[in-house]
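Re: [ENG-882] Designed sequences occasionally contain unexpected residues at chain ends

Forwarding the minimal case from QA. C-alpha cells:
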C-alpha cells in the first residue's frame, strides 16, 4: 500500500469516518512492520495537529514560580570542564538515549489512556468503552485508545483493580494483562485482578472469564462466579471457591478482608496500599493469622485493630514504619 493511501486511511480512522471495508484494508496494511513504523510517525503527526490535552501553562508557571521562590530551592553549581572531544561522545550517547526514551514515552501516551492512584487512595474511572474500573491504592492502569486496530480492548494493570466490563454489540473482547504475564479475557462481567510482586489473584463475581499464563504455557482456565484463582510466580493456578467473593472487593469501602491471613501478610498489604512498613521482630507473632472483615482507612487504624484483637502494642520509630510487638505482660 502506498504511504499516502495509508495516511489517508489512518486520518479517516482517527476522525471516526472509516468504513468497514476500509477498516479491513487498514488492518491488513498494519500487519506489515514497515507500515507499523509509518503508523507511529503519522499518529504523532496527527496528535500534534489535533491535541487531546491542552496544558494550563499559566497554572504550571505559577506552581513552578512558587517552588522557585522557596528558600533553598536554587543552588549554584560550579561547572566542570572536560576536553571537548571526550565530552562530545557522551553528549551524543545521552542525546540518543533521551530521544529513544522520549519517543517511547510519546508513543505510549498516544496509544493508551493512563490512570494512576497514589498510596492510601482509590479512584473510580469510566473507560472510553463504557466499562467501569475502581483502582486500589498504588496502582496503574493503561487502556488502549484504538482498540479497533488491534481487534480487542486491552487494559494493562500494575496493582489491583475491580472491573465491571461493558458488553459491546460487535462483541469486541476485553483483555486485562499484568506484568507477570497473566491474561484475563472477558466479554462482559464483574471481576477483580490483583498483580504485585510476581504473583496475581483473580476473583469473579459475575459472568465468565478465561485466564491464560504466558509463563507456564498451560491450557487456558475458565473461571466461574465465586471462584478465586491465585497465580504463583511460575504462572501456576490454584483455584478455590469463596462463599463470599464480594468481600475481596471491600477495599473499595475502606475495609480489609482477612481469610486466615498472617500478620506478615497483612504487613505486605500495608506496604502496598499505604507505603508503610510493618516491623514484627518476633517471627512467631508474624505467623499469627486472623480472619474477618474490618473497617480501616489507613495503616494506623489497621494496626490499632490488630493490637486490640491480639492484645499487642505498637510504636512509630519512623513516619513510614510501625513496630508491632507483644505486650510484656501477655503471652499469645
Amino acid at each position: 500500500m502506498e504511504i499516502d493511501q495509508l495516511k489517508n486511511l489512518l486520518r479517516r480512522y482517527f476522525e471516526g469516518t472509516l468504513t468497514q471495508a476500509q477498516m479491513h484494508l487498514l488492518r491488513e496494511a498494519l500487519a506489515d512492520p514497515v507500515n507499523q513504523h509509518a503508523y507511529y510517525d503519522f499518529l504523532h503527526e496527527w496528535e500534534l495537529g489535533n491535541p487531546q490535552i491542552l496544558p494550563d501553562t499559566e497554572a504550571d508557571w505559577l506552581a513552578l514560580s512558587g517552588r522557585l521562590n522557596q528558600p533553598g530551592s536554587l543552588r549554584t553549581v560550579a561547572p566542570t570542564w572536560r576536553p571537548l572531544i571526550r565530552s562530545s561522545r557522551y553528549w551524543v550517547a545521552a542525546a540518543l538515549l533521551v530521544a529513544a526514551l522520549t519517543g517511547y514515552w510519546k508513543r505510549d501516551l498516544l496509544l493508551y489512556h493512563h490512570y494512576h492512584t497514589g498510596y492510601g487512595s482509590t479512584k473510580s474511572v469510566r473507560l472510553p468503552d463504557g466499562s467501569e474500573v475502581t483502582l486500589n491504592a498504588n496502582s496503574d492502569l493503561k487502556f488502549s485508545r484504538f482498540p479497533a486496530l488491534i481487534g480487542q480492548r486491552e487494559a494493562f494493570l500494575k496493582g489491583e483493580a475491580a472491573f465491571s466490563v461493558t458488553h459491546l454489540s460487535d462483541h469486541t473482547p476485553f483483555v486485562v494483562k499484568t506484568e507477570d504475564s497473566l491474561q484475563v479475557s472477558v466479554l462482559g462481567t464483574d471481576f477483580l485482578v490483583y498483580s504485585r510482586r510476581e504473583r496475581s489473584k483473580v476473583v469473579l463475581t459475575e459472568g465468565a472469564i478465561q485466564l491464560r499464563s504466558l509463563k507456564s504455557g498451560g491450557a487456558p482456565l475458565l473461571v466461574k462466579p465465586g471462584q478465586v484463582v491465585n497465580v504463583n510466580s511460575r504462572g501456576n493456578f490454584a483455584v478455590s471457591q469463596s462463599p463470599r467473593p464480594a468481600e475481596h472487593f471491600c477495599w473499595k469501602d475502606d475495609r480489609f478482608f482477612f481469610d486466615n491471613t498472617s500478620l506478615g501478610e497483612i504487613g505486605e498489604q500495608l506496604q502496598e496500599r499505604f507505603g508503610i512498613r510493618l516491623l514484627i521482630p518476633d517471627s512467631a507473632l508474624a505467623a499469627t493469622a486472623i480472619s474477618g472483615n474490618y473497617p480501616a482507612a489507613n495503616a494506623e487504624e489497621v494496626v490499632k485493630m490488630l493490637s486490640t484483637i491480639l492484645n499487642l502494642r505498637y510504636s512509630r520509630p519512623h513516619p513510614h514504619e510501625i513496630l508491632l510487638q507483644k505486650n510484656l505482660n501477655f503471652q499469645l
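QA comment: On inspection the terminal residues look reasonable. Residues 71-88 have pLDDT under 50 and may be disordered. Proposing we downgrade this to a documentation issue.
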